[in-house]
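Minutes, project check-in
Item: structure for the 499-residue chain
Input as provided by the requester:
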Amino acid sequence: MSNKLYDQYKAQLSKISDVSHSIAVLHWDKETYIPKKGIQRRAQQIATLSGIAHEMAISKDLGNLLVQLNEGNSLTENEKKNVAQSLKLYQKITKLSKDHVIKLSKTTSKAFHAWHKAKEAEDYSIFAPHMKEVVSLKREEAEMLGYDDHPYDALLDAYEAGEKSANLDKLFADVKAQLVDFVQEIAAKDQVAHDFMDQSFDKDAQWDLGIDLLQQMGYDFDKGRQDIAPHPFTTNFSADDVRVTTRIDEKNIANMIWSCIHEGGHALYEQGLLNENYGLPAGSAISLGIHESQSRLWENNVGRSRAYWQANFSNLQARFPQMAEVDTEAFYKACNLVKPSFIRTESDELTYHFHIMIRYEIEKGLIEGSIDAKDLPEIWAQKYKSYLGIEVPNHKMGVLQDVHWSHGSIGYFPTYSLGSFYAAQFYAQAAKDIPDLEEQIAAGNMLGLLAWLRENIHQYGQLYTAEELCVKISGEPLNFQYFMDYARAKYGDIYGLSA
């Protein structure tokens, strides 16, 4: 009986995933190719399907089925984990009304395009009323979901299950206590040469280089594609259809390189999930922190390493003759320039976490009500002056630079820092398990690392929590010290700091 019930459960989750991934296709098209006049109707289409998916996900039949399976005793260990995860999600989403889900979908669809217009015009006031409405809906959502200590925790849980703002406060206290001083040590040293990065780089040549880098990582173009988007992202419709986007600035080759590698890391995770688990928790990523660990591991631990550019710099030089007189070591150091900047996605991997702290503090304030959406530009500027010592020149380079809030993704930003810290810990373990890892990378062979990630992370989906997986891999929970050890070794060498 239980096996028959489990088959019913799998079939129901597969149908829900079909609808959810159909919504994802519409979102992907909306952010890449949709004509301007199609936006309003698209918002309605997405809202309608979101309502249908929500109804399916909260159906009483599914709830009863999950309870029956959860109380049974004839399932395998992995089947039990799938059911337990599904039941936990069911209990959460049944707290959200269909009206709320549809209203949020419509609001964020309109908010995205208002954000895009506001960014182009460098005018936050265009987006402000939409942001206010998004924040209001997310506050309502936090109350519906419930929380123990802080309303922000209810939203954070959607991206990093079980995480609490109290834990993040401690983590960012470590960042302030250790990373701030380390960045100041670097600032006191002579800056690395990077003037050769400020040239014109042909758009088509950049695109071709990006494709090469993705293929080298192991990204399967038979199961995906790359397109251009104003804010690079990865989306998946199954393990056999995982798409990435990039952006290209002819005056800044770094935009393309790091967005390709970063999004490629996300995509490899999705392509590595087992297709047999489509629709099941085992066929979905654990958390956004773990997801981000994959993109940041490839982007920083690999893509900004000396070994990586020993493998790839000759290809870059062949595509851009103006780089012929630059040597590999100089380019490697330029890739690791540490300097406060306005744009999060273009920042170095150390000051990056100051950008995340700013967003985290603002998000908490918005949800608890201590910050009003209309005041964001001023608060943003104050925090950038305080944390990074820079004056924000305009709204485009300030409060409008990220797309996340227009999507309603409040609670998302902390996962970026969590991902970097997980990445350092995972990469340290991979280097132990693969003694010649650096030599493989320097030879242009990334497949050994990919195989390690497939075996230790990708294949499990949600069968483990983020903390359980971290312990399984490294023997201990997330430990910020791995990141600081990595940072001190790497940047101490680049900037000539004493050990």
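Outcome recorded: Residues 21 and 326 are 45 Å apart (CA to CA).
No further action items on this chain.
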